[in-house]
Automatic annotation (TrEMBL):
Name of this protein: Aspartyl/glutamyl-tRNA(Asn/Gln) amidotransferase subunit C
Protein family per UniProt: Belongs to the GatC family.
EC id: 6.3.5.-
GO biological process: glutaminyl-tRNAGln biosynthesis via transamidation; regulation of translational fidelity; translation
Gene that specifies this protein: gatC
Record InterPro entries: Asp/Glu-ADT_sf_sub_c, GatC
Coiled coil residues, start to end: 17-44
UniProt catalytic activity: L-aspartyl-tRNA(Asn) + L-glutamine + ATP + H2O = L-asparaginyl-tRNA(Asn) + L-glutamate + ADP + phosphate + 2 H(+); L-glutamyl-tRNA(Gln) + L-glutamine + ATP + H2O = L-glutaminyl-tRNA(Gln) + L-glutamate + ADP + phosphate + H(+)
Length: 96
């Protein structure tokens, strides 16, 4: 399969792109090189290659969830300069 300048012109028209003849020739060559590379990849024997989502083996590096004792709401708000209804109160950052 190969791309023609007419194919590039058609796609450019659909995308509402105004391409010069020079650009259409350039994109035609580039797209054909991409297709040639894809055809080469199709020839590879991948029968015994396991599918992967990443090139390198990646393991979950997050720690296990453990139940801990945290501050109560009252302790967290104990030194707050301004609080209201169990929440920190701060100055407005946007004008209404």
């Amino acid at each position: 399969m190969s791309i023609t300048t007419q194919d590039v012109a058609h796609v450019a028209n659909l995308a509402r792109l105004a391409l010069t003849d020079n650009e259409m020739e350039q994109y035609t060559n580039q797209l054909n090189k991409i297709l040639q590379h894809a055809e080469e990849l199709q020839k590879l024997d991948l029968e015994n290659v396991q599918p992967t989502s990443h090139v390198l083996p990646i393991h979950n590096v997050m720690r296990e969830d453990k139940s801990r004792v945290w501050l109560t709401n009252e302790q967290a708000l104990a030194n707050a300069p301004d609080k209201d209804a169990g929440q920190f109160r701060v100055p407005a950052v946007m004008e209404g």
